[in-house]
Amino acid sequence: MRGYALQRMLIRIATPFGIALLGIALLELTLQLLALGAPRWLARTPAPGAGEAFRILCIGDSHTYGWDVERSEAYPARLEQLLDEGGELDFEVVNLGVPASNSSQVVTHLPRYLAHYRPQLLVVTIGGNDVVNLADRKAPASGRGLQQALWGLRSWRLLVYALHQREKVESGQAAEVDLSWSNPWRAIELRDGLLHERYEHRIVWDAVLDEAEHEALLRWNLREIVRIASIAGVPVVFASYTHDFHTLAAANRVMGAVAGALFVSQRAHRDLRRYASVLATGESLFFKDLHPKAPLYAAAAAHLRDELLRERLIPR
């Protein structure tokens, strides 16, 4: 009798979980079938409606953030200014550059950024810090991990989008992205309204990857970025670093070779000559730490705008 009672109790406990799992499975199957039959109807990044801005997310490290210059002088802010000049459509370019971050951290945070901002375009410059920042690092052969596996489920993405949509409705107009830190080499907090992301850096200067390891890790992460963005229906642009020194050169090579995304080469003395009049003066375009100065950021933004227009990734 005791065994029978225990069996009944287990059945009573397990039944609701089984029904819930069956319901989730049926929801996932329905969403997958609908996506096959009506992919446009299920698009998660629709074109902006009347009165809405065309939103571009710029994700990367300190070269996107605007290290050594004012945030208004970094290329995302410059790009927004150029796109808004003389056009009927408003543009919103969000600077999600996090100093010292690596490509693995971009993979980790990207799903939440896409759900929160619902952009029409994603621009990424990343990989220069992969050799020394061990945070979130996974071996290329280790698989996608739990977060990426969940992101492949449409029912999971529906839940994430619903939660972030609720955040946006409750918080109203999105606030300006704010970054704070006591030591940027250890941790950085990113906030925008109710969005709160924490980057835990693991800088290990004596654990530098060799070139082959660096490129293999970065290649895997960039493919993941393209995969995650394509699931959300967001086109991806990889914009190169403006300098071609050592790890930046390796990152530029890998970004230029990943399928499924537009690559825009932004190297100062090769691609930006006609945009940077300061080149003719012989004045240095870089700070000693190889970050661009304000005139080079302006040149990079102008070049990027022209390439996006030429490829018809943004409306004229």
Q: Main sheet: which strands, in order across? A: 2-1-3-7-8
Sheet having the most strands = 5 strands, parallel
The tally of strands reads 8
Query: How many distinct folded domains?
Result: 2
- Overall radius of gyration: 22 Å
Bin the helical content: 40-55%
Structural class: alpha/beta
Strand content: 5-15%
The gross shape turns out to be globular
List low-confidence stretches: 36-45, 166-174
Question: What does this molecule look like?
Answer:
By secondary structure, the protein is an alpha/beta fold. It has two domains: 1-42; 54-156 and 202-310, SGNH hydrolase (Rossmann fold, 3-Layer(aba) Sandwich), CATH 3.40.50. The protein has helices at residues 2-37, 62-65, 75-84, 103-117, 145-151, 154-171, 211-231, 247-255, 268-271, 294-310, and strands at 54-60, 91-97, 121-125, 178-180, 187-192, 195-200, 236-239, 262-264. Strands 2-1-3-7-8 form a five-stranded parallel sheet, sandwiched between helices. A hairpin with a 6-residue loop joins strand 4 and strand 5. Helix 3 (75-84) crosses helix 10 (294-310) and helix 7 (211-231) crosses helix 8. It is globular, with a radius of gyration of 22 Å.
SSE diagram, text form:
Elements: H1 2-37, E1 54-60, H2 62-65, H3 75-84, E2 91-97, H4 103-117, E3 121-125, H5 145-151, H6 154-171, E4 178-180, E5 187-192, E6 195-200, H7 211-231, E7 236-239, H8 247-255, E8 262-264, H9 268-271, H10 294-310
Helix pairs in contact: 3-10, 4-7, 7-8
